Amino acid sequence: xxxxxxxxxxxxxxSLIGIASSSYALSIEGIDFLSIDTGVSVQYDNNLFRxxxxxxxxxxxxxxxRSDRITSGLIGIDLDKEYGQQRWKLDANFxxxxxxxxxxLDYSATDYSALWLWRxxxxxxxxxxxxxxxxPISFADYFNYSQKNIRITENRRFDxxxxxxxxxxVLGGVSQIKQENxxxxxxxxxxxxxxxxxxAQYDFSSGSTLALxxxxxxxxYLDRALDPVALLxxxxxxxxxxxxxxxxxxxxxxxxxxxxxxxxxHPNFSRRDFGGMVGTVDYIWDVTGKIRIDSRLERSxxxxxxxxxxxxxxxxxxxxxxxxxxxxxxxxxxxxxAWQNYxxxxxxxxxxxxxDRLNSYQFSISWKPTEKITVTGSLLHQERxxxxxxxxxxxxxxxxxxxxxxx
Length: 407
Fold this sequence. Notes:
Layout: H1 2-25, E1 33-45, E2 68-83, E3 86-99, E4 107-121, E5 124-136, E6 150-165, E7 168-181, E8 191-203, E9 209-221, E10 235-248, E11 253-265, E12 274-286, E13 291-306, E14 309-324, E15 329-343, E16 355-367, E17 373-385, E18 394-406
Antiparallel strand pairs: 1-2, 1-18, 2-3, 3-4, 4-5, 5-6, 6-7, 7-8, 8-9, 9-10, 10-11, 11-12, 12-13, 13-14, 14-15, 15-16, 16-17, 17-18
């Protein structure tokens, strides 16, 4: 009974705050759009720790149960304001997550996304953005089951765009990415990366754009000392060159593509260096007024440092049809396949290369009975195969129900 009360009280309290606040928030003068969001969701995960089929969960340290029910409550604010040539946007929320069986994993998250779209003259504009995401690291690769590991990722970015003449633009920007783990995880360590970039863009009369950008970055690992045994460095330097194309094919289809070359170097342990081609191609097709298909091809290089690898090559394809059946009812299906090849072993005699195959599908259906209420049900199935590293294999399924009220 006490456990039941523990789950219900925080979410009821969150909803009451939203109701009490909405009448005041919407009366503020000069705000183009302001809303208070509240919500409750319940998920059932049949393999929370992403275990292979063989282990008995009772024999794995820190695992109370293979499956679990996660309940969360949310309160947030959404703001959109225009004044003259300036525009400000803010989306912020606080969420509390509670686990029915693995109670030590309970956590709270504060997320936000803030954006200033600035313009000083018709030819000189840009944006300043800040965002923060707080979420647990997946147990797919983090194996300390007795300790939760919450990752906070913060992005700060300033971009400037100068329209020089005709369709030609000069682009520039600076940014900082900070990723911080609450517990040690050397394969994906906490770090701070500061970047500066510059380039040019041309706007075609059709509305399509083509840009070329160069980027230099300096990175510092935040939770490391120099380790000559595991070859763990304390910093890195990264260079990228990137071409971006936004191509309006027809009135109903668009291609957003970028292709480039990335190179990362470590000053003390060059065996951790890597580089190669990276890129994405997104194709958006509005088939009819009710059906849209989103698809993506991607190749990326991602740092992952242990004795068997320094990084992995991620090649991924996904397709997601969306069907708006009525004004109140819509459905979405996403199919995704990824191939991940782990490279850069530091062992004296390199063993077999880890090669993973990930497949997933997700189906969701949303019902909007009124302008302010949205109810969404979802099913996510995930599977990872790693023939030469069977401990990394798993199959998992998450079913969820979410209800959100916007004032």
